[in-house]
Every structure is written in C-alpha cells, then in structure tokens.
Predict the structure.
Amino acid sequence: MSDYIRDASEIYRNSFAIIRSEANLNVLPPDVAKVAVRLIHACGMTDIVTDLGYSSTAAQAGRAALAAGAAILCDCRMVAEGVTRKRLSANNQVICTLYEPEVPEMAKHLGTTRSAAALELWHSYLEGAVVAIGNAPTALFRLLEMLDEGAPKPALILGFPVGFVGAAESKAALAADSRNVPFITLHGRRGGSAIAAAAVNALATEEE
Amino acid sequence: MSDYIRDASEIYRNSFAIIRSEANLNVLPPDVAKVAVRLIHACGMTDIVTDLGYSSTAAQAGRAALAAGAAILCDCRMVAEGVTRKRLSANNQVICTLYEPEVPEMAKHLGTTRSAAALELWHSYLEGAVVAIGNAPTALFRLLEMLDEGAPKPALILGFPVGFVGAAESKAALAADSRNVPFITLHGRRGGSAIAAAAVNALATEEE
C-alpha cells in the first residue's frame, strides 16, 4: 500500500509512457495521435485507436480555434467540468445550456430530448466554436440538422456520445457527412464526457 | 437522419432492453445486476460485467444509506455533476472537496496528489457516507490508508478510478481488503466519473 506513486507529474509521465508503448498510434497522423493519447488516458483503453474517426484538418482547426478564444459548447455539465481551465490560454468560454430554465418546455414543444433542445440556445455561439458532445446522441443528430438548416458553422465537432441507442448511428452520420466541419469522433457505442473533455484538453495546449 | 429516436423515455427503455439482452447479467446477484445495467448504460460496454467486484451487502448497504440521507463524497466534480439530483429522495449532500482553497498547499505538504489531499477534508462527512471515486487512484489508495488510521467508516465505497498508473492496483487493494466496508468496483484500467456517478444513481432509487 505505501509504495503507490503519489507524485502527480510522475503519474502523468508514466501514464503517457505506457500509452505510447502499448497503443498502435502509428496508424494516426501525428497531430491526431497526440489527441488520441489523451483520449486513451481518459478512458484507460488503448484499443480505441481502431475506432477513431477524424477529418484531416480537425486537430489543426481545433488548436487554432481554441488559441484564438473559441467558445467551447458542451452538451452536458460533466463535459464542461472536465475541461481543464488552466489549459485554455485564451480564457475561452465553456458553455452548457442544458440546465437553462426554458429547456424542458422547449424539449416538450419540439418533441425531442432536453439534450437536443438545449442546442437551440447555441445559435449565437456556434460560429467558429468548438463543440464537445460527450453524452447525448440526440444532441449530435440535432447539431447536424441545424447545420443542414443553415446554422453557423463551428470550427470543430468533437463527437463522443455514448451508449446503445443512437450513439453509433449519430457518429456514423457525422463521419459520413460532417457538413464541411472538421470533426473527431469515436465510432461505436463507446464515448462519454471524460473522452469529450479530454479531446478539448488535448487541443487546448501542446503541453502534455 | 430524420428517423432517430427523440423520446427520452423510449431511448432509456430501448437502451436498458439492449443491455439486458446482451449482457451476461446472470452471473451477478439480482441487486448487483441492477446496478450493472446502469454502469453499462454509462459506458456503452456490456463486457464490464466480467470485471465487476463487489461485496455481498454492497447494493443493499448503498440503497439503505442513500435512502437515509447519506452524504455522497466524490473525488472530482465530474462525478458530482453526474449524480442525478432528482433521484436522491433524501436530498443528500453531494460533496467534492478537490477545489477547496487549502488543497494545493496540503498536497504539497503531504507529498501527494491534490485528489488524495482533498480527502483530508472528508473526515467529518465519512461516517455512513457513500464514497464515489471516479477519477484518481491516489484518492482510493488514500481512503484505504485513512481507514487503517482509524477514520470513520463510510457505508459504501464505489471505487471506479480509471487509467494506467495505480487504477488497477488501487481497486485490487480495495477488493482484497475493504476494511469491512461494503464496496463495488470495476477491476482493471477501466472506470471513470460517468461509471461512478451511474453507480450512485443506480442505488439512489429502484426506478430505472
């Protein structure tokens, strides 16, 4: 018991060393591989590399947007909590509209989930933003619909909804046609708020 | 695109039906199986059943404690955010001390991580509490040390730290000797705040 590692920097260093030694990062472009290291770190699974989907400019677009102060739009508060503020050099806004008081009524009116309805409050922030979806497939589906309806384009979509109904489908829809928005996603059922937040954290600074 | 399921209740129902049809829940006692369904729902992986560890009274102890108003002690704010407040019938306190102002200095003084140092502020809440660790192995290691040092016993330990350094080891230490505290854990590297919060949510009410 008394011999566990207590030094945070050493824990990070060792973690990343294990990830780099075990994960098959060579199949990824270097800028995506760097993001993948943090995604793996967040979930403990090196085999997610196989399921990563991304557009060629995604990492670069995300880094540039965050450095320039892009807002970070999150589908749930767990993602917003997972974004490490001290990694955000431009004091970026981290926004989650899920608990805004009008959302439950909007969801009823629109016949959809609260997670999807909450995106109606994103319009004024969407242009050039980094979108991080870590929970709700319906939020990712709705985002794609909004883009089809002419909503302003974000700089990057980090699409990591999780689960058994719609998660794989919404991520497949994103990867099949991201409406010319750069994206990073994890195909299949896996995903989640920790992975979505880790993607933001990876792109916020080059520092590991 | 237009045919995705938008009804939250239907999404839940379908998700749980898929989980029950695919996961090998028969190897678990019924009360643990019910918790497992929500853990699987949170991470999208049915195969975590194999890695679950638990003591025989854990689910029962957790339900009783939460119903009686036990505090919920979380190692990070993502876990605290993931606890669904409306499932808590006794208006339980949800406590995370990680960002208390004295923690960084305490961590330096104690030569440990902030996540572990934050537990020093748990003493007055520990008795009969439900502890939910979803991030830091050092927090789980420190909790076991505190119990060895005579700290008050929580009602239940939900041990779900994630990652490559100490996660598997801290969970193995918990399962090998939980200091007579009921526990639920997920062996290996997998874990995380969504799973830890899902365990609390599963035990907070019988309602799915």
